Amino acid sequence: MIEAKGICKAFGALQVLKGIDLKIETGEVTCLIGASGSGKSTFLRCLNGLDPADSGELSVEGMPMLGKGVDIDRIRQRIGMVFQHFNLFNNMTVLQNITIGPIKLRGKSPDEARAEAIALLKLVGLADRTEAMPRMLSGGQKQRVAIARALAMAPEVMLFDEPTSALDPEMVREVLDVIRDVATRGMTMVIVTHEMGFAREIADRVAFMHQGKVHEVGTPEQIFSNPREERTREFLSKVL
Amino acid sequence: MIDSSWIGYLPTLLAGASLTIVVTIISMLFGTVIGVIVALMKLSSSRVARAIASIYGTLIRGLPLLVQILLVYFAIPAITGLRVSGVAAGTVAMTLFTGAFMAEIIRSGIQSIDKGQYEACRSIGFSHWATMRLVICPQAFRVILPSIANQFSITLKDTSLLSVIGVVELTMAGQTIYALNFDTIRVLALVGIMYLIIYLVAEQFSGWVERRLAR
């Protein structure tokens, strides 16, 4: 479970997050929607400390993530992240991208890590590309490897930061299929997305963000069919 | 009487050339070590570290190399009371000189790597230093290899200035010959050819490393 209370974050004079309260239950898929600049990605990046929150309370599985004495590197091992621009390590093969974390951080033997990596590559449909370098892959393939890399750490939570926004349209489907597959295995996930159809289908809960605040949280059914807030209605009328 | 044939010049010039190569390689090696440290200081969050790195860079870039060489040569004995050879002082000066430029090369190389590479590695749970070692530096090295080769050529040629403190490197070796027999043009031509050969070998080597890394 992730619990965020009063999360605030500013970049210089720009106040991006203005007190966010959100609870993400274990096994739940939460989609963050909202206009560009509403703070969705920044909030997601607060959840693993890539952009540390300025104030507020944040805990993952009951462990506080903010304040002194927090071993953020250790906590991050339990939180996988998938980026908009994939960010595969360009100096490593597909296999090395996936195995480096388990080998160096989780003490797996190279053989064990390799076997697990190949199983994950099968899951994302790329078992034949173990020795490929990232530059040889299409965007969709890169993103699927990135998902496998995050899963290889056996995280308790997966964060997705607009995972299909940088993809060519014909590759969106293959990545969404993989994410859906991971979701059905009961992984706790937080997904920032502009794919409203996908959010509606996959999410257990949808949170609508506007100007640095969560304006409305609810089931996909409620948010998309029967939004309570004027802002939510306005946003949905523009994107649906 | 010296042997005034092409062949007769070779022993003296080759001895000079080997000293030039040794000083250049030592300066490049230690200069790279200094360069890495100073580059990390420049990129660190500590204001003191950044200030020290910046003062070092300004001094080295702002003073003529000849002045730096003389300063090191006369300052070390004056400060420490130790007698140092021209070769030792010269190598220290060339190392400090090379280090400042390597720092700039390495800093720009590290900064040229997409921030997403760093974030992805941190997001898995690696520390800052592990991320630098596993992901950032290997990629930065590929980017800066041509600049390192360029710095090698600069350091190689500038070792000729060590002749002013009596180091018998390649240029000085040539001078010792034509000072006696006035065969200036032929000797300098030979000296020039030797610099070129050293440079071409280094260029080939860096090209080879670059091709290997590209695979």
User: What name does the CATH topology of chain B carry?
Assistant: MetI-like fold
Strand sequence of the main sheet of chain A, in spatial order? 6-7-8-3-9-10
Low-confidence stretches of chain B: none
Rounded average pLDDT of chain A? 93
Spatial separation of the terminal alpha carbons of chain B: 55 Å
Number of alpha- plus pi-helical segments of chain B: 8
Question: DSSP strand (E) fraction of chain A?
Answer: 25-35%
In total, the number of domains of chain B comes to 1
Largest sheet geometry of chain A: 6 strands, mixed
Structural class of chain B comes to mainly alpha
Helix-and-strand structural type of chain A: alpha/beta
Question: What does the model show?
Answer:
The complex is a heterodimer of chains A (240) and B (215). By secondary structure, chain A is an alpha/beta fold. Helix content of chain A is 38%, strand content 25%. Chain A is built from 9 helices and 10 strands. Chain A has a 6-stranded mixed β-sheet with strand order 6-7-8-3-9-10, with helices on both faces. In chain A, β9 and β10 form a beta hairpin. In chain A, α3 packs parallel to α5. Chain B is mainly alpha-helical. Chain B is 84% helix and 0% strand. Chain B starts with 5 loop residues before the first helix and ends with a helix. Chain B has one domain: MetI-like (MetI-like fold). Chain B is built from 8 helices and no strands. At the A-B interface, α2, β6, α3 and α5 of A face α5 and α6 of B.
Put the structure in a nutshell:
Chain A contains 9 helices and 10 strands.
Which helices and strands, and how do they pair?
The complex is a heterodimer of chains A (240) and B (215).
Chain A: E1 2-11, E2 14-24, E3 29-34, H1 40-47, E4 55-60, E5 63-64, H2 72-76, E6 79-82, H3 94-105, H4 110-123, H5 139-151, E7 157-161, H6 169-184, E8 188-192, H7 196-202, E9 205-210, E10 213-218, H8 220-225, H9 230-239
Parallel strand pairs in A: 3-8, 3-9, 6-7, 7-8
Antiparallel strand pairs in A: 1-2, 1-4, 4-5, 9-10
Chain B: H1 6-43, H2 47-62, H3 65-80, H4 86-112, H5 115-124, H6 128-158, H7 170-181, H8 184-214
Helix pairs in contact in B: 1-2, 1-4, 1-6, 1-7, 1-8, 2-4, 3-4, 4-6, 5-6, 6-8, 7-8
